[in-house]
Design brief:
Elements: H1 9-21, H2 27-40, H3 46-55, H4 62-79, H5 85-98, H6 104-121, H7 129-136, H8 142-158, H9 172-181, H10 188-199, H11 207-211, H12 213-222, H13 229-245, H14 247-250, H15 254-264, H16 270-285, H17 289-293, H18 297-307, H19 312-317, E1 364-367, E2 370-373, H20 401-416, H21 421-432, H22 437-449, H23 455-472, H24 478-490, H25 492-496, H26 504-515, H27 520-537, H28 545-558, H29 561-578, H30 585-601, H31 609-623, H32 628-654, H33 665-681, H34 686-690, H35 694-701, H36 707-728, H37 732-741, H38 748-765, H39 773-785, H40 791-807, H41 809-812, H42 816-827, H43 834-849, H44 858-866, H45 873-890, H46 892-899, H47 904-914
Antiparallel strand pairs: 1-2
């Protein structure tokens, strides 16, 4: 298609002047250029000028031409649908002509532009693109071939699924065999492109690739030892993906592949070694791992431990030689956003999932159904649902060989368990006591990585190792002190279960010193490790509370910005762990002034409020009435944060072009802190609730589209119901239908809190709950009978059904047969408490109303009754009455046959507790 568009001289001059100005370091100039570029988008042929500069104006320097192309790419991305057809056609034609530009920079820019146009307008609207690029691959001009491959690789990355559908006539059937021909090309760049293109289709099990799988493998093996590191990297990447997708094709060669990957994991090019190291992580997920890898462990494990040593570049980036930096202020860009965890109500309405004092999370790997998180400087391998991409220290926080090697050792320890130790113990003996600090550091990391998988085999060594590690907390190298904090935290479960004087006290003393270390990285590692220790030790820490609080409070005056956020977590976790033991005047006087000081200096829009509010929520719950002197300003500010966020949300919904969507985390954290206040202060919150608009705000937030907002709203509703039901009651007819609409187990946490709140409301509302029972009873029965409902939700659902049966037995009892078995199974394992008490009273009332509903599952009821350690006297009498009534109604002979099915322990408990 011939294009007759030509630029005007004056227009060209203006655009070139703009392009030059946009490279100015002055921000005011850049802003003016930005506005001018936006204005120029109103002229239809502005984009033609940009295209002309990129592809035709060879008199200009390459950076200016490339910049023109990148501005054009952004315009295409933003305004594609409003571009005139003549403009899009001009761009498409010029792109195809410039694919083989002599300049690598211009070729790359054209490639980016092509893939942007292709992905915005979909491939079907540019039918000549793929055939044209395909033909160019056979060009004798290297630049044309390389440019076409560069563009194709970007298209394969961006449009992998579109290339494999009928709507585009399955171009892959032509492309895949074509790419395979180029695995043997004389240029390493082309070989690398060819493998890279095919690799895009492995994970989606593309039909065309599966058809040519044998040819693909043959070609891969042919270039496996290529001189070019990019080619080797792509080979490793392919084999890692094939392991998950086509193990059947690799199995015959698996020994050779393992040998190959062993060599590549030690590749002189670290990026190749990293790709190869991923192989061990993938292999550990395969059922055949144990049988195929066992014989290679003696060679693999030393390679992995060696890979865990800091590289020289790591140490430079980590400022590993800087020992004292606690007076150096943090750069704002080093502080990553944190994601708040909404409150989830479990049996005791406690908060789940404190973040262990950890804010940085790096690459996430799914292994054995778990997510492993690696903290940038001292690994933190922990279960969690959400993760942030770390880029804490420039390139260091990217996934690197050290992290991948440690991750691989961790997952292999979970596969091979104690069988790993005969190989690993000699290596640990050599590395842990090594003269060179970086080798010793890698040994300590390895010891931490195997903690979960090899724990039972390590127990016999821990009485020696733990004191040695506690000693390493005083190492003169900061990076050794930091990793030691993490490794000790991985063994804290063992430590807590030993005599305190031998291990817990010395560990706690030294960790608290490290919390006040002069190195920020060590402070962070120690704070994280201490939070883990707090979770393990819980009330075991009570005798040492004064000492712990003095240290944590002193850290307030010492810490720079980033570590302050982790300190809040450590204090919040401490409050969660020791609970009301914190409620002593001397502890309150230590802890509250610095927290309230921070609370007063932070502005409402400052995201540092998140961790502070989370911390205060835990503290308020723990201090209970001890928090009273501080509660009013805290309460009022939380209400105002919720109100302001809802206001911004409404404004954004009404006029999205004038308002940004608000950050709802402010509202979520405020709702959670209000929950903490309601739970801690109980009835004492009544006056504050009365004088605020919280009920109206709650009604709005319960209907929010964001699940986390609803989750926290329902938690607060339940807590306010318990604390001051007189203020909740007038709004019940608005609230209960919303709770009923949120009983969807697809969203576990929302469903959990809605279920819990229904139970709390029904207990307070009593018989008046009747009118609302149809809103949720069937859904609750569905949830309790679903095969995959998580344990916490099952327990909450059973308690709420029991409570509904307690207040409205005649409305719930007719359905008894549909849920009684699963109800009994769900509640047999929970400890005696008031929630279990009310649920069982409800069950007994329902059985009295509809005894026939329990007959076929009576053995399950017997078992659930036997799970009580110490029921209240009147409840015990009801149990006796039901058991004996059943026995007399079926007759002695039937009862004897029935009770023969009981396990001996159940028979014995029923006899001793209830005389039956």
């Amino acid at each position: 298609m011939k294009m007759d568009w030509t630029p005007q001289e004056e227009g060209l001059r203006e655009i070139l002047a703009l392009l030059r100005e946009s490279q100015s370091p002055d921000t005011a100039t850049q802003r003016a250029v930005q506005l001018k570029l936006e204005e120029l988008n109103n002229f239809p042929d502005f984009n033609n000028y940009l295209m002309f500069v990129l592809t035709k104006l060879t008199s200009e320097d390459e950076p200016t031409r490339s910049l023109s192309g990148l501005i054009l790419k952004n315009n295409v991305k933003t305004h594609y649908n409003s571009l005139q057809p003549t403009v899009t056609n001009y761009i498409k034609t010029e792109c195809l002509q410039a694919v083989g530009d002599p300049s690598p920079l211009i070729r790359a820019t054209v490639g980016i532009l092509i893939t942007t146009v292709a992905s915005k307008g979909d491939l079907a609207s540019w039918p000549e693109l793929l055939p044209a690029l395909c033909n160019m691959l056979d060009s004798t001009d290297y630049n044309v071939c390389e440019g076409a491959f560069g563009a194709l690789q970007k298209i394969c990355e961006d449009s992998a699924e579109a290339l494999d559908t009928d709507t585009t006539n399955r171009p892959l059937e032509i492309l895949i065999p074509k790419f395979l021909q180029f695995f043997n090309h004389s240029s390493s760049k082309i070989r690398s492109y060819a493998i890279g293109c095919v690799n895009q289709f492995i994970a989606q099990r593309s039909q065309a690739l599966m058809f040519h799988i044998d040819s693909f493998l043959q070609n891969l093996f042919h270039v496996a030892t290529d001189d070019d590191s990019e080619v080797r990297k792509n080979v490793c990447r392919a084999l890692v993906m094939l392991l998950e997708v086509r193990m059947d094709r690799l199995i015959n060669q698996i020994d050779n592949i393992i040998e190959y990957m062993l060599v590549r994991t030690q590749d002189p090019d670290e990026s190749v070694a990293l790709e190869a190291c991923e192989f061990w992580l993938s292999l550990a997920e395969q059922p055949i791992c144990k049988s195929v890898l066992g014989n290679h462990l003696t060679r693999l494990i030393p390679v992995l431990v060696k890979g865990m040593k800091y590289s020289e570049i790591d140490i430079i980036l980590l400022k590993g030689d800087v020992e004292e930096d606690d007076n150096v202020p943090d750069k704002e860009e080093d502080i990553k956003p944190r994601f708040h965890k909404s409150k989830t109500h479990t049996m005791k309405a406690t908060q789940i999932g404190a973040e262990n004092g950890i804010s940085d999370k790096g690459k996430c790997l799914k292994t054995n159904g778990k997510h492993f998180f690696f903290q940038i400087n001292h690994f933190n391998l922990e279960d969690d649902e959400d993760f942030e991409d770390g880029d804490d220290d420039g390139s260091l926080s990217d996934w690197n060989l050290r992290k991948c090697s440690a991750a691989a050792l961790d997952v292999l320890a979970n596969v091979f368990r104690e069988d790993l130790l005969p190989i690993l113990i000699p290596i640990l003996k050599e590395t842990l006591f090594h003269r060179e600090w970086d080798v010793k550091e890698s040994g300590i990391l390895a010891l931490g990585a195997i903690a979960e998988g090899c724990m039972s085999g390590m127990i016999s060594h821990l009485s020696e190792l733990i004191p040695y590690l506690i000693g390493c907390l005083n190492d003169k190298k900061a990076l050794v002190r930091a990793i030691t904090c993490w490794t000790l935290s991985r063994y804290s479960h063992w430590v807590v279960n030993q005599p305190h004087d031998s291990y817990l006290k010395p560990l706690m003393t030294e960790l608290l010193k490290r919390i006040l270390d002069s190195n920020k990285r060590v402070q962070e590692a120690a704070c994280s490790a201490f939070a883990t220790l707090e979770e393990e030790a819980c009330t075991e820490l009570v005798p040492y509370l004064g000492f712990i609080l003095e240290t944590l409070v002193f850290a307030f005056s010492k810490y720079q910005h980033k570590n302050l956020l982790i300190l809040y977590d450590a204090i919040g976790t401490l409050a969660d762990s020791v609970g009301s033991h914190l409620n002593k005047p001397e502890y309150i006087n230590l802890l509250m002034p610095p927290l309230i000081h921070k609370w007063n200096v932070l502005k409402d829009e400052d995201k540092d409020l998140f961790p502070l509010l989370e911390c205060l929520s835990s503290v308020a719950t723990a201090l209970q009435l001890g928090f009273l002197p501080y509660c009013e300003p805290v309460y009022c500010r939380c209400v105002s944060l919720v109100q302001h966020t809802l206001y911004l949300h409404v404004a954004y919904m009404q006029t999205p072009d004038q308002y940004e969507p608000p950050d709802k985390d402010f509202m979520i954290v405020a709702l959670d802190l209000l929950s903490g206040l309601a739970e801690g202060l109980n009835g004492h919150i009544e006056k504050l609730v009365e004088n605020s608009s919280i009920m109206h705000l709650l009604h709005m937030s319960m209907q929010d589209t964001m699940p986390e907002v609803r989750q926290s709203s329902f938690a607060l509703l339940g807590d306010l119901t318990k604390a001051c039901f007189q203020h909740v009651r007038p709004h019940i007819s608005n609230f209960l239908p919303i709770l009923g609409q949120n009983l969807n187990p697809e969203n576990i946490s929302v469903c959990n809190n809605a279920t819990w709140a229904i139970g709390e409301i029904s207990i307070k509302l009593g018989a008046d709950t009747r009118t609302f029972v149809p809103l949720f009873l069937n859904q609750l029965i569905d949830i309790i009978n679903r095969p995959d409902t998580p344990k916490t939700l099952l327990e909450n659902t059973a308690i709420t059904i029991g409570r509904l049966g307690f207040v409205c037995p005649h409305d719930v009892a007719p359905m008894l047969q549909q849920f009684v078995r699963q109800w009994c199974i769900s509640l047999r394992n929970i400890r005696d408490n008031e929630e279990k008490d009310s649920a069982f009273r409800g069950m007994c009332q329902m059985i009295q109303v509809n005894p026939g509903g329990v007959v076929t599952d009576f053995i399950f009821f017997c078992d659930a009754v036997a799970s009580w350690m110490n029921p209240q006297d009147d409840l015990k009498e009801v149990f006796v009455k039901i058991l004996h009534t059943f026995k007399s109604q079926v007759g002695d002979e039937n009862w004897r046959r029935f009770s023969e099915q009981f396990p001996p322990q159940l028979k014995e408990r029923l006899s001793s507790l209830y005389g039956i």
